[in-house]
Design brief:
The complex is a heterodimer of chains A (265) and B (200). Chain A is mainly alpha-helical and 265 residues long. Helix content of chain A is 64%, strand content 0%. In chain A, helix 1 packs across helix 9 and helix 6 packs antiparallel against helix 7. Classes of the chains: A mainly alpha (265), B alpha/beta (200).
Chain lengths: 265, 200
């Protein structure tokens, strides 16, 4: 049991929570009723996964530091720099804009991101089922089952958009061109991942890259989309250094808890 | 229900453990546990009230607490990670035991082995069908294999028959439905929409 172990669990939890929160923005605003329900269900699964992971983190935290925290302490009472999710999952549902500019949500961005993340987790969760942390392994076994449905949903839509009309193809391709460089962070080498890999807790991101790329390539082929060049820049969300969008997301996520500290509902 | 009936073991005092699990089995000879099992038999799932939490495989075990033999532990497992009904289920268990005049039990939530639709009892599948929900089909979507849920000239791998007319000609309307565990389908013959309990 180490600080790295705890930090690794929190990374997994933060990714699930922040993507769940982001996708929940479609609740009541989906492009069709079925998609509204789908995105809301996916968010429910992701937030459920984050709760299980935060709950595991509280046990590790108590063992390491003696602090008795709750899931809510992690979700509602940490500040931006303490969250270690990938930058990809915090981005808004529209393409690149300067500063605080705002646009209508674009479903192609939502779908492309879900494909990129769910395909990663399709490889990560099954490996975590063999983790030396048996609680993590149990969470991974449940999450792997849920993730399959998330991935199939997103892949289906990517094929439908990419191999659809001229406009849907163009928008899917530009969402992919925009988001793919953010996936560099999935695979960047990192002392924390080296430490947990040495303890048999989880794999290093870099070990997942080949399998992930093969799956993404197959989906893009079917969707008639082209894999863009990702460049060398690596975002740093997993180190706690986020994009300008993260603060706004957290402000919304944490507003009720912070306006009514200690409230029970 | 009269108390004499409640004490009748109904075969449900055997814990439903996953194959290969090494947890000790509690026999029907423990009258208190048998009584708790019988009471919990009447606790319905909050979202699908035609089946009980035991029939859905949510209720995993009833046992005496290792640290306090007088205390009964009720072991439950969530279906989906984000299942919003878990709090309600714990509350319903407490209310049912209280109504039967039994002492409060400790509710223990376990994640492993992960819940699977394979644990839904065959009888419950029939009840689901009668209620208008197609029970899960055997095959589960395989790992990373692309499996298209939208018509692209290939039938989906797990097309459930219509629970209303029995026709095998059905189509998926949406992969996610009214609760986390269901998808929405439509029958191409009787035209009725229906829920499908997704394999998990």
């Amino acid at each position: 049991m180490t600080q790295q172990h705890l930090a690794y669990i929190l990374r997994l939890a933060d990714n699930a929570l922040i993507l769940g929160q982001r996708n929940s923005e479609w609740c009541g605003h989906g492009p069709a009723l079925e998609e509204d329900i789908a995105l809301t269900n996916i968010s429910l699964d992701l937030i459920g996964q984050s709760r299980l992971l935060y709950s595991r983190a509280t046990a590790l935290e108590t063992a390491l530091t003696g602090l008795a925290l709750t899931e809510d302490d992690y979700a509602y009472w940490r500040t931006e720099r303490q969250f270690t999710n990938y930058t990809l999952v915090e981005l808004p549902h529209y393409g690149p804009l300067a500063g605080t500019a705002h646009a209508e949500k674009d479903y192609a961005v939502t779908i492309v991101r879900n494909v990129l993340y769910a395909t990663l987790m399709a490889h990560l969760w099954p490996l975590l089922e063999r983790s030396s942390d048996t609680d993590l392994a149990a969470i991974a076994a449940k999450s792997a089952k849920e993730n399959r449905y998330h991935m199939h949903h997103a892949q289906d839509w990517l094929v439908r958009l990419g191999d659809g009309t001229e406009i849907s193809h163009r928008r899917a391709q530009s969402a992919l061109d925009y988001l793919l460089p953010y996936t560099n962070e999935f695979f960047s080498a990192d002392a924390l991942e080296d430490a947990v890999a040495a303890d048999g807790i989880g794999p290093r991101g870099t070990d997942l890259k080949a399998a992930w790329l093969a799956d993404i390539g197959a989906t893009l082929d079917e969707a008639t989309l082209k894999l863009p060049v990702t460049g060398n820049y690596i975002t740093s969300g997993k180190l706690g250094i986020h994009s300008e969008h993260m603060g706004y997301l957290l402000a919304e996520l944490q507003s009720v808890a912070r306006q009514h500290p200690g409230a029970q509902w | 229900m009269n108390p004499a009936n409640r004490l009748e073991p109904r075969g449900s005092c055997e814990p439903l453990l996953a194959p290969g699990s090494s947890e000790p089995l509690h026999g029907c000879d423990d009258a208190l546990l048998a009584q708790v099992w019988a009471v919990l038999e009447t606790v319905p799932d909050p979202e699908i009230p035609v089946v009980s939490i035991r029939e859905l495989g949510i209720l995993r075990d009833v046992r005496r607490a290792a640290d306090a033999p007088g205390l009964v532990e009720v072991v439950i497992t969530p279906t989906y990670s984000g299942c919003p009904a878990m709090g309600q289920i714990s509350e319903d268990i407490g209310l049912a035991l209280n109504a039967a005049g039994l002492a409060p039990a400790r509710i223990v939530t376990v994640l492993s082995p992960a819940w699977t639709t394979d644990w839904i009892t065959p009888g419950a599948g029939e009840k689901l069908r009668a209620y208008g929900i197609a029970p899960p089909q055997g095959d589960r979507p395989a790992g990373a294999q692309p499996l298209r849920f939208m018509p692209r000239g290939r039938p989906a791998a797990d097309q459930p028959p219509c629970p209303h007319c029995g026709s095998p000609h059905t189509e998926r309307l949406a992969q996610f439905g009214s609760t986390a565990c269901k998808a929405l389908y439509r029958c191409l013959d009787c035209r009725e929409p229906f829920d499908y309990f997704k394999p998990y």
